[in-house]
Amino acid sequence: MDYKEISRKTVGHLYQAHSSIRNSGIDNKLIALVELRISQLNGCSYCCSFHANELREMGIESSLIDKIPGYKHSVSFDNRQVLVLKWADAVTGLTDDIDSLLKELKQEFSEKEIVELTSSISLMNALNRLRISLGDKY
Predict the structure, then answer these.
(1) CA-to-CA distance for 61 and 33, rounded, in angstroms?
(2) How much is the mean pLDDT over the chain?
(3) I want to staple 109 with a disulfide (CB 3.0 to 4.6 A). Which of 56, 80, 91, 113 is the partner?
């Protein structure tokens, strides 16, 4: 189903929000990193491929991209990357550690960055669900 065409205005607003986040000043490599992680968690094959390629185009090594599913057991990620990946997991799964993770985020990120990051995570979950339920299967 061509959901983007069928509901051009509504879905267009989602993509406008995505563009707004990407132009908000937060590091786009971190945003792409969480978008890939969320797509992995949700099992969106199209989005996994898209965001992995995007990260490579941004200069992120394939070896690091390959380690994202096991980031908790790796020393390859810096503190900011680990925090945003943990936040992506927590917000996507609505886990019980959200409050403690938010405190950690506040030590490393501004409130605006946290809002943009959380908006990105929420939006990517919505976009994954649209693609998985209504989009072409890849």
Answers:
(1) 12
(2) 96
(3) 113
Contact status, residue 132 vs residue 44, Cβ threshold 8 Å: yes
CA dihedral 123, 127, 129, 130 (to 10 degrees): 140
What residue segments make up the domains of the chain, in order of their start? 3-134
Looking at residue 97, what DSSP letter applies?
T
Structural contact between residues 91 and 120, judged by C-beta atoms closer than 8 angstroms: no
φ, ψ at 137 (rounded to 5°): -90, 135
Q: Quick one: how far is CA 8 from the chain centroid?
A: 23
**Tokens in use for 135?**
């989009």
Of the candidates 63, 12, 45, the residue with the CA atom closest to the CA atom of residue 136: 45
Mind listing the pLDDT tens digit for each residue in 3-17?
A: 999 999 999 999 999
Q: Alpha-carbon distance 32 to 58, whole Å?
A: 9
